[in-house]
Protein: LysR family transcriptional regulator
Amino acid sequence: MRRLPPLKALRAFEAAGRHESLKQAADELHVTTGAVSQQVKLLEEFLGVDLFKRLNKSVRLTEAGRAALPLIESGFELLNQAVTRAQEFGNQNLITISVAPSFGAKWLLPRLELFRKAHPDIDLRVDASTRLVDFSYEDVDLAIRYGPPKERGMHLEALTDEIVFPVCSPRLLERGKVFRQPQDLAGQTLLHFEGRADDREFPGWGHWLGAAGVASLEVVNGPRFSMSSMVLQAAMDGQGIALGSSVLAADDLRAGRLVRLFDVSVQAQHSYYLICTRNTLNRPDIQRFVQWIKQEMTAGQRDSK
Structure:
């Protein structure tokens, strides 16, 4: 058998070729740009041919690179299929799910017991993360992410839309404060969510105040948080008024830990997506989990209306 180049070098080239960017490949693989460049050079030396044209601040595939890239992509997909097929002969009833920390804490965790009671033969492992998942290398079966999916060649399924609206602790109302109309927010402390770059399009107070017709209202800018769950916790602690989402705040509203203040809401631009490989989707245990989470999401949508 002909000697093959190192797998890491092939992976670096595949990512760099797909993005036509060493930096984006490095971000995806969670290594430095220099490490990707070194692996690509190693592969080029192994093959005896240039795979990229190095430009000032970018790279472009050469004719050899363009010819090799789709075959290497297919090779990684075949490897993934082989691993999935082999796992079919082992213990399939462990599902590893990658979810954003706030979604895991506020939505998935409170419902895990419901899933376990309905499917006692399936174990779940939850990995809290917001990074892009490389299903070819990581021990992850499913990912649930908010926003437009960046994964290519995957099964992508929109789970639910999301609306946001003001919420606060009932203790704030017990102090005698009355909120009958959006103008009553004047002088109140507003809590803010400032997520990663991926979340910048998530509706903030500016969107909601504009939708409510009080864009110029004078309010007190309160703390800013990088996680939605922290914003909701601060609201429950009485530190101010937050924008709660129909997904993440649902249980706190139902339990009375938070109260919704007005009927005005803003539709989030993106949805929550379930992401997995097409081969993984064929597993019976995965199909049962997907069916369950879709049913729970649908029920939550009905309750939030």
